[in-house]
What does this fold into?
Amino acid sequence: MKLGTLKSSSRDGKLVVVSKDNKKWTSAEQIAPNLRTAVENWTEVQPKLKELYKKLNLGQAPAQDVKEKEFLSPLPRTFQWIDGSTFIQHIKLVRKSRKAPLPETLTTIPLVYQGAGDSFLAPTEDIPQSSFSNGTDFEGEVAVVVDDVPMGVSIQDAHKHIILFLLVNDVSLRAIALEELKRGFGFLQSKPSSAFAPFAVTQEELGDSWKEGRIHLPLLVNFNGEFFGKAHAGEMHFNFAELISHCAKTRKLAAGTIIGSGTVSNEDPAKGSSCLVEKRTLEKIQTGSAQQAFMKEAHHIEIKMLDKKGQDIFGAISQKVKAI
It folds into this structure.
């Protein structure tokens, strides 16, 4: 099942069901006014949404053409956005870029930070920047949406609470991040609003690519119209069940919480990268200096993921940077 959120007069937008081929949508407002309401009442509404999805794909529901510029991020806002860093290669490269040691618990305890979930950018919305000295970067990720997760949930049970999957551009301001890390109290200004691909999908849309708590597909990243990366998302060190259990160790997680994988990253250099800082660090290692600039006015980032048959799963994140 594929769900999306159309722009409307509401901050939470209007819930629609999207066809498997991403070409048509039909309103689901009669079931739930928006996706935030739907995920908070998932047990009740999921069968109704699934039936509507079936009818849409059979041509038995009123439908309109999908225009991705009319879509918000599936959850335009939510109560909690937690981002992990589960790809070891990314951690190694980012730490090397700022000459920081690797954590002793690198392979045993997930790294996570709690971001702001009050306002996400739309998938085709410009990335606003007040200064290009901030080191504007994109970060391509995969993420899950959970229902109500009890405190202390086990790794074995955590996967049962995943209800939807998303693609993310977790925008980062690298220069500000360095200063915030020096102060030792976490990210805030260096993590402006993220954006999500237009369609949230259920597990069935991933087929056998969802296994071992990971999405076993490449994340396709183009920067300024050119290939930038195709790192494989299946190479997460910690899987999503482990992330959920870690985040819920001392408190429950509310329905609608989004948990990100962190930047998708592989050791094979032929796979490219999913963020600029990785490429800059690799250039420093190879040549002694970074050639890749951070994002500037009108720079364009596109992030998407195809299934094994070449079908676009989530729609595309397609954003330009805009000075404000």
Q: What stands out?
A: Residues 24 and 66 are 5 Å apart (CA to CA). The chain has seven helices and 21 strands. Residues 42-57 form the longest helix (16 residues). The first strand starts at residue 2 and ends at 6.
